[in-house]
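Crp/Fnr family transcriptional regulator: structure tokens wanted.
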Amino acid sequence: MGLSKKTLWSPFEKYINRVEVPARTVLLEEGKVSKTMFFVEKGCLRTWINHDGKEITTQFFFEGDSVSSIESFRTNQPSLYSIESIEPCILHTVSQRDFQKVIEEQPPLRKMFEEHLFRRLFEGQRIMLSFLRNTPQQRYEELIRQYPHIVQRVPQHYIASYLGITPVSLSRIRNRK
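Answer:
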């Protein structure tokens, strides 16, 4: 049984800043180095890439989730994607430097975050394989199972972008239900 998120984050308490951001705030731009990890207290974030001027949503994050461009955060390489708020958010942030300091001082915590990275990698693979195996209808149904509240909180064009379809196609899928 894993530790609760509160217990997991307690070693970072003295380094955490609470910030409130309005909807549509870009927290990290694709191509910039990620220097901050975000923990969502309230609200919704998305990650997205720019493909020839078109935004393609890659993931959604809700209350209790943590997000950063983890590859960039850990390696100082440019981020492969942007992070943006969809709703007004209350976030808790920890800097890359402070994060590194805490996990260097606490090897068990370092191991837990390595496991977290593995789970994120697995989730990324699951999403990629879903695009190869499943129809847009199946991907939509899977998304609704994972986040039943998503249709009330996330604009349809972001959901369509995530599914790799147009908003019109998403509307047709939703009308079949």
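The domain at 5-95 is CATH 2.60.120.10 (Jelly Rolls). The beta strands are 17-21, 26-28, 36-42, 45-51, 54-61, 66-67, 82-85, 89-95.

Cheers.
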